[in-house]
Amino acid sequence: MAEITPELRKALLKLQKTEITEYRIYTRLARKMEGENRKILERIGADEKRHADTWRRYTETDVKPNSLMVAFYMFLAFLFGITFAIKIMERGEESAEEAYDSIGDKIAEAEKIMHEEAEHEEALVNLIDEERLKYVGSMVLGLNDALVELTGALAGFTFALAESSIVGVAGLITGVAATLSMAASEYLSQRSEKGELNPVKAAVYTGIAYLITVTLLVAPYFIADNVYLSLIWALFDAFLVILFFSFFVSVVQDRPFKPAFMEMAVISFGVATVSFIIGLIARRFLPVDL
Q1: Domains of the chain (ranges plus CATH)?
Q2: Whole-angstrom Cα distance, residue 101 to residue 246?
Q3: How buried is residue 266: exposed, middle or buried, by Cβ count under 10 Å (0-12/13-18/19+)?
Q4: 92-96, 186-190, 220-224, 237-241 — most confident range
Q5: Poorest-confidence range of 69-73, 168-172, 255-259?
């Protein structure tokens, strides 16, 4: 066995705590799953436990999992799905990989464990069959359409109507009607394609994504009295929605974040800018007095 210096022991204890924490996370996630998903998570958890036991032989110390991190990742899994939570957790392995590199010439098992962390777990995570990921396309459709249509509509209403509460009501009516329309369209689309997606679930995911976006964009008009402040607030909400969902998709689908974010942002705010101009022209030249 290699000589365990104080610095090496400190590094091993840190790795041991990380592994035992991830073991606890995977074990708890597995209890919430069934079938093949459960087997996959149990297998990953078993690997993490074996890694922790390996470091335990060197440190000769028992460590407890980080309860705060366990709770955090369970919360992420509850809100955004198991795949998202696990991939976020595995993204945090970069510091662990640096630690493995630093001890690789001192601990024989380090290189083997590093390869297992980098390759074996990634392969297992990609096998996870999670329902909501099948409907990412439906959610993207709902979000994109809501962002493009409603930011444009609200921008036009703002300059044409110039009254916060009236714009809010007009936006809400437009948004709810569009939500029902988009959900129905997605249902008919999936039904006609006869693919593996359930048409009803696809419609529900599309509708929920659309309605959440509508709520975030319209709410400022019922809170702020100044119609232009409401518009800025709504556009900021749109920016946050684009930022979050682009990040979500980039994580679960292993796609670059920046191109997806820029594409959605340019389209949404480009349409909003054109609508600003149309609304301003409508207020200036059409015989409407509000």
Answers
A1: 6-129 (1.20.1260), 132-285 (no CATH)
A2: 32
A3: exposed
A4: 220-224
A5: 255-259
